[in-house]
Amino acid sequence: MPPLRFCANLSFLFADAAFPERFARAARAGFAGVEYMFPYAWAADELARCLRDNGLVQVLHNLPPGDWDAGERGIACLPGREAEFRAGVEQGIDYARTLGCTQLNCLAGLAPAGADSDDEVDGAELRAEVHATFAANLRYAARRLGEHGIRLLVEPINSRVDMPGFWLDTPRKALALIEELNEPNLWLQYDVYHAQIMEGDLTRTLEANFSRIAHIQIADNPGRHEPGTGEINFPYLFDRLARLGYAGWIGCEYRPLDDAEAGMEAATEAGLGWLPRA
């Protein structure tokens, strides 16, 4: 069995360092790849240099999310924002090509006000419009990214703890949408932390949908800290993934426990005892 490949999520790990410095920290810690949420605050050439200087692969980043600082968490499901979404797809492609990144994740966004209404007419009509908008945007992005050899990923994010109101909040919903659209370049990004909160049943979900999963992210639950700090049996999951022949990357998208508890410098390195070593 080939060894599993783990990449450092630089939006979460090595947080005591300035962002450009985290690339070197990741390489010294033994990671061969990195991911992070958004590259757009930095010049693509600068980030490419950070990758090159440290011998790292850019595994993944997200499409632009709208106004993150104002509370937006993606715009793909929002009616009336289609032109902005398409412009974001082009920006994501430009960065991905410069960074050598072959996977982009699309955040659905928070459901617009009224989508959870109990009104049988207005609520249902708005939910149908949101669904149609999201589906059309995903179809467009999947085909546009495919022209550049870039996979489009979609990630369900839990609405119970981290993002109340997030439109696509369970793997079941994401997989149903992938089946509905039947786009060969649309894939599931399976974050076991979010999945454990919303549905559990991690192993059966992985096994039943293995052919549609392009990327996996990990954090333990509760707390979103490193493996071994919560209820998820990561040694078992890693063994199952290896036996299934998983060849993708596993993104380490967690907050180091020491960092959360004590603000400790180098907390990421101190908490890497769980990481399988070749």
The number of helical segments is 10
What is the CATH level 1 assignment?
Alpha Beta
Sheet of most strands:
8 strands, parallel, barrel
Shape, per Cα inertia axes: globular
Q: What is the terminal-to-terminal distance?
A: 12 Å
- Estimate what percentage of residues fall within beta strands: 5-15%
Rg, alpha carbons: 18 Å
Structure class: alpha/beta
> How many domains, as an integer?
1
Give the % helix: 25-40%
Poorly predicted residue ranges: none
Secondary structure: number of strands: 8
Numbering strands along the chain, what is their spatial order in the largest sheet? 1-2-3-4-5-6-7-8
Rounded mean pLDDT score: 96
- CATH homologous superfamily annotation: Divalent-metal-dependent TIM barrel enzymes
Kindly summarize this structure in a few lines:
By secondary structure, this protein is an alpha/beta fold.
What does this structure look like?
The chain is of the alpha/beta class. Helix 4 (122-146) links the parallel strand 4 and strand 5 (151-154). The protein contains 10 helices and 8 strands. The protein is globular, with a radius of gyration of 18 Å. It has helices at 19-28, 44-54, 82-99, 122-146, 171-181, 192-198, 202-208, 234-244, 257-262, 267-270, and strands at residues 5-9, 33-35, 57-62, 103-106, 151-154, 186-191, 213-218, 249-252. Strands 1-2-3-4-5-6-7-8 form an 8-stranded parallel β-barrel, surrounded by 5 helices. Helix 3 packs parallel to helix 4 (122-146). It has one domain: Divalent-metal-dependent TIM barrel enzymes (TIM Barrel), CATH 3.20.20. The longest helix has 25 residues, at 122-146.
